[in-house]
Design brief:
The protein is α/β, with parallel strands linked by helices and 356 residues long. Helix content is 48%, strand content 20%. The chain has 13 helices and eleven strands. The protein is globular, with a radius of gyration of 20 Å. Bound molecules: nicotinamide-adenine-dinucleotide and zinc ion (ZN).
């Protein structure tokens, strides 16, 4: 098993990455020293695959786990579901010393993280991500929260987990489309900060999709190391952490105008990354060969790379303007310089759509 640390002083925590390491959940939680009574929060889909192994591991380590199961789906990442989680935590007798284990993808992780940050003014949280997106992105960095009818992730808190345990074996049951969407974020890390990782993906993307065990551990570990270092340098996104938004300005715009139904997040980000590379090229910041490398590796994964014609223009500009990260009309847009290097440019939504 590999270990990467998120360096945050007294709140420093490990990310464990391995193949088959779910069985070590109880041991790791035992090392953390929390109360025996604790809860596993998961959803109906993930429970069918991994709840039992997680409970066995916890019980073997002496824990008395309660289980809280939520329905599957982003539409349940809301205040009503959070309230039901609080109800069940109280009924289960979870005390301040207890921990919450988030077993699932980013939806379970965000909800559980926020429940842990607020229940009894804060109990320990452990992330056990089971989607590729959650393993390389959402489980790390302490952004927790729920959606509001007026927008995604509008309510939440920065609250770091005590550790993250990513078992790449869980990816074997993930629907292929979800795996591929997660790969968009993996490729993003290569593009923004790790040229050798990008080259490795260019070389072996088919093996990653075929779930080559050793390669997956290596790729997930490297992505976790990148996210960890960015979060360590800028926990609350006052500066550098915004580099992680590469491809997300256009990506979020596309998700928003298609009502979050047509594309998975990673698919929209794939389109957004090619768009960001093209904008960078138009601004003279990067060359055409780098744009083509980004487009080509995404396309080989089976990810979309073009903004559909009907979504171009004013509708997309309006959606980007409404994004909570746009301030006073100018967006802090992440541009590509070369593979592995980026820079921020203040751009208007109109500039961005003009260059697509
Ligand atoms: N906190 C952050 O920093 C951060 C970052 C990025 C995204 N997010 C959030 O993450 C969420 C998306 O996360 P996601 O992509 O993991 O989606 P998700 O949690 O909805 O999971 C995708 C689907 O895969 C299923 N699933 C999960 N693990 C499985 C497994 N091992 N086998 C079979 N099926 C499995 C889920 O039940 C679900 O149907 C969004 O709500 C987004 O806002 C948060
Ligand atoms: Zn993303």
């Amino acid at each position: 098993m590999e270990v990467v640390h998120v360096e945050l002083g007294a709140r420093r925590y490990p990310i464990y990455v391995g193949a088959g390491c779910l069985s070590e959940l109880g041991t790791r939680l035992g090392e953390m020293g929390c109360g025996v009574r604790m809860a596993v929060v998961t959803n109906s889909t993930v429970a069918g695959h991994y709840l039992e192994p997680a409970l066995v591991s916890l019980r073997r380590a002496g824990f008395d786990p309660a289980t809280i199961q939520i329905p599957d789906g982003e539409e349940h990442k809301n205040l009503a579901m959070l309230s039901r989680i609080y109800d069940q935590l109280i009924e289960a007798g979870i005390e301040r010393s207890g921990a919450l284990v988030a077993l699932g993808g980013g939806v379970v992780g965000d909800l559980t993280g926020f429940a842990a940050a607020t229940y009894l003014r804060g109990v320990a949280c452990v992330q056990v991500p089971t989607t590729l997106l959650a393993q390389v992105d959402s489980s790390i960095g302490g952004k927790t929260g729920v959606n509001h009818v007026l927008g995604k992730n509008l309510i939440g808190a920065f609250s770091q987990p005590r550790f993250v345990l990513a078992d790449v074996e869980t990816l074997r049951t993930l629907p292929p489309r979800e795996l591929t969407a997660g790969l968009a974020e993996v490729i993003k890390y290569g593009v923004i900060l790790d040229a050798p990782l990008f080259a490795l993906l260019e070389d072996r993307i088919a093996d990653v999709q075929a779930l080559d065990r050793e390669l997956l551990v290596e790729v997930v570990r490297r992505c976790c190391a990148i996210k960890a270092s960015v979060v360590s340098a800028d926990e609350t996104e006052s500066g550098l952490r915004a580099v992680l938004n590469f491809g997300h300005t256009v990506g979020h715009g596309i998700e928003s105008i298609t009502g979050y139904t047509r594309y998975l997040h990673g698919e929209a980000v794939a389109i957004g990354m090619v768009a960001a590379a093209r904008v960078s090229r138009q601004l003279g910041l990067c060359g055409e060969p780098d744009v083509e490398r980004v487009r080509s590796v995404l396309a080989r994964c089976g990810l979309p790379t073009e903004v559909p014609a009907e979504l171009r223009g004013e509708a997309l500009a309006r959606a980007m303007r409404a994004d909570k990260k746009a301030r006073a009309g100018a967006i802090k847009f992440v541009c590509l310089e070369t593979i592995g290097t980026t820079r921020f440019e203040r751009l208007s939504p109109e500039d961005i759509v003009k260059y697509l």
